[in-house]
Structure formats: C-alpha cells, structure tokens
User: What shape does this take?
Amino acid sequence: MAACENTGEDATRSFNGVNVIDESNLNDVMLTVGDPNEAVTYFQRATGEQPDRIDLQRGLAKSLIRAGRHTEAVSAWQKVVAHKDVTDDDRVELADALIRNGDWKAAEKTLNTVPPTVETFKRYRLEAMVADSNKDWKKADSFYDTAVGLTTTPAGVMNNWGYSKLTRGDYADAERLFADAIRLDGKLFTAKNNLILARGAQKKYTMPVMPMSQSERAELLYSLGLTAVKQGDVTIGKGLLRDAVDTHPQHFDAAARSLAALENS
Assistant: This one.
C-alpha cells in the first residue's frame, strides 16, 4: 500500500514529460519530411492553441518557407522577431525570407540589426547576396569568401559566387568557381549550366569534363548552342543544337524548335 501512495501527481508529471518529448519529436519530423503544406497546417493549429510558444512560431515560419509561401513566411518570421525570446538567428531567418520575397532593402535593414559577433554561414551568405544586389562587388567577394570557409558543403555558395562573377562579366573567375562547385557536388545541375554559360561567353564551345547524364548533356549542349548563337557564332550554334537533339534520350522539343527556327531564318 505504501508503494502506491501519492502516485497520481507523479504519474501526471511523468505523462506530461512524455507528451512534451513526443511533441518535440513530432515538430522535428514535420519540419523535415512529408508535404510542407501539411506541416504548415500542423503548426498553424499548434500556434493557434499555444500562441505564446516561439518554437511553434518558428516551426510555422520554416514550414511556410519550405512550402514556397514566402509572403506568408515573412509575416511569420516578423512575428517571431517580435517575440520576447527572439534570437539573432531568428533575425537572420527573417532576412532570408525577405530576400526570397524580393524585398532586398528590408533584408539589408534586418541584417544590420544583427551584431557583427554573429559569424554564421547563413548570415555571411545573405550579406554577400545583399552586397551583390547593391553591386558592391568588393564587399560581396569578401562575404562569399568568408561564407565558403564556414560550411562543410560550400558548393551552393560557390555557385552563387560564380553567378555573381558571371553577371559582372568576369567569366574566367566564374568558370573557376562553377568548376569548384561541381567538383564538390557533382549533382548540382545549376552549376553545370552556369559553367557552360561562362565558357560560352568566352567562346569556349567544347564540353568540359564533368559528371553528367545523357539528358543533362543534351540540356547543356542546348545552352551552349544558344550561347554561341547570341555570340554571333550561328554555324557553331546550329551544330551544338543538332548534337543536343541527337543526344537526348527522348524527343528534345525546345532544341528542335530552336534549330528549325535558325535553319528557316
């Protein structure tokens, strides 16, 4: 009988603890797998029931980003930033949402509220993108360089840095950065296509050695062919477009139409 005394309160406390752990695990699962719109619905319901919990507000904001609902995500992150338990990382996330929504000035203003002691990869990557938007190339290069050193997976930021160089007309440096990005992540097709654009701008019309599927090779030949045409090298462009049509494992309608238009003009 003594062993059974006062078990009610202890049991309640124990079950509450289990519920908190289970809920925390469920929140993590909702943020990483499944339909992001289902996660949005889950966190909308959770924040409606417990509106003061910043972890649930963060979950909603992150889920909206995953779902591509950037305007709503900005509002959600602004609510997080207004919370009494806000962190500097939350402000960086708000800046990210603002950039995704195309509000560069507001993103820059938000990043300016983050102390310089916050030296995270995401902060420097966003600072580099904002500097790019302002055409402050020196600052952009400095931020990109710092960001690359703060992550174990720098391929994506190298691709962004390369694209920045591409827009400035610094094609050789852009080519080098895209090649580095591909070396680190052979599945990054955006970097492969950007590499082709950088090479084409230098009138390098041969395909570089890099990992690619047959479909990817056809797509890249198509990009290179269009670049050659824009450079005034129409005959070379036609040849590359023919190669694209012949290489693709299925019918490559876009390349076929471009080739037909060139041959009929």
